[in-house]
């Protein structure tokens, strides 16, 4: 019996769309391409790595994005039996006294199961199937919160036309399909609501450029705060030594001398004109 379970786990692990070389390589992007048993295998192999104990809480949080995570006591036979089947995979903590964790991929069966994380990892066909299961009410029957989630991952547009015109040559439906949209048709009496959906292209993330780090005479890394203070002091020194700074004050100095002599700028202007 145990050998059959091991064989089943190995078979399921082969279904994973990618290979995880180390559990420490797990992140919010590749978690969606792995199954329970591939993660469990990588977890058990990585428990002996030096940084595993520090990384364990972070790894569990990443797993929670796509999987149910349940902590349980393996010594309790009744409790442990709950996770012997049903698609659960078992992973152990880095410290054995913490017990075990069972993980299973979260099912997306209803439109309310969608989240900002998982909506980017489902197909357009699956999205339209979820919308169709929503009591057939159409796009407007979906709550604003769920619509916002859907539109974070898909381009959505809708139209309502009589059944006799929905498939007219050169019409909206034909044009949208040509543009790469999938369509869901929901009958509403003698009319039809067409919901068009197309997956959005991934948005390129902005990478922050880190300031170049410097070292002191002893080879110690200079803290960024000290570097910023040095830069500010250098800028102030350059400002004090900049001749253009003082030259910019010259017109104001001339005006002050004129005013001290009891003249106004207008008087000086008139004298120059008369000359």
Characterize the structure shown.
The chain has 275 residues and is an alpha+beta fold. It has helices at 2-14, 36-46, 52-66, 77-81, 124-133, 144-153, 172-178, 224-240, 243-247, 250-260, 265-274; strands spanning 67-72, 89-92, 100-105, 154-162, 182-188, 191-199. The protein has a three-stranded antiparallel sheet. Strands 4-6-5 form a three-stranded antiparallel sheet, with helices on both faces.
Order of SSEs, N→C? HHHEHEEHHEHEEHHHH
What is the helix fraction of residues, given as a range?
40-55%
- Summarize the biggest pleated sheet: 3 strands, antiparallel
Q: Number of DSSP strands?
A: 6
Structural class by sheet pairing and helices: alpha+beta
Q: Which strand order do you get reading across the main beta sheet?
A: 1-3-2
The average pLDDT is 78
Tell me the layout of helices and strands:
Blueprint: H1 2-14, H2 36-46, H3 52-66, E1 67-72, H4 77-81, E2 89-92, E3 100-105, H5 124-133, H6 144-153, E4 154-162, H7 172-178, E5 182-188, E6 191-199, H8 224-240, H9 243-247, H10 250-260, H11 265-274
Antiparallel strand pairs: 1-3, 2-3, 4-6, 5-6
């Amino acid at each position: 019996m145990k050998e059959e379970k091991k064989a089943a786990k190995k078979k399921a692990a082969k279904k994973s769309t990618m290979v995880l070389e180390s559990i420490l390589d797990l992140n919010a992007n590749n978690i969606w391409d792995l199954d329970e048993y591939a993660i469990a295998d990588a977890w058990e192999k990585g428990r002996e790595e030096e940084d595993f104990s520090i990384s364990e809480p972070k790894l569990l949080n990443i797993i929670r994005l796509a999987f149910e995570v349940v902590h349980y006591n393996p010594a309790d036979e009744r409790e442990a039996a709950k996770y012997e089947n049903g698609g659960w995979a078992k992973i152990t903590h880095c410290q054995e006294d913490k017990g075990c964790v069972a993980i299973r991929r979260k099912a997306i069966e209803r439109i309310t199961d969608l989240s900002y994380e998982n909506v980017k990892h489902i197909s357009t066909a699956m999205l339209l199937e979820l919308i169709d299961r929503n009591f057939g009410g159409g796009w407007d029957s979906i709550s604003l919160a769920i619509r916002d989630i859907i539109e974070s991952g898909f381009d959505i547009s809708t139209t309502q036309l009589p059944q006799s015109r929905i498939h007219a040559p050169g019409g909206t439906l034909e044009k949208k399909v040509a543009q790469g949209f999938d369509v869901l048709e929901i009958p509403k009496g003698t009319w039809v609501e067409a919901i068009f959906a197309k997956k959005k292209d991934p948005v390129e993330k902005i990478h922050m450029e880190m300031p170049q780090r410097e070292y002191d005479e002893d080879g110690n890394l200079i803290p960024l705060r000290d570097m910023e203070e040095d830069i500010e002091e250098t800028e102030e020194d350059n400002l004090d030594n900049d001749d253009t700074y003082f030259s910019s004050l010259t017109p104001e100095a001339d005006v002050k001398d004129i005013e001290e002599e009891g003249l106004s700028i207008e008087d000086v202007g008139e004298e120059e004109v008369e000359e």
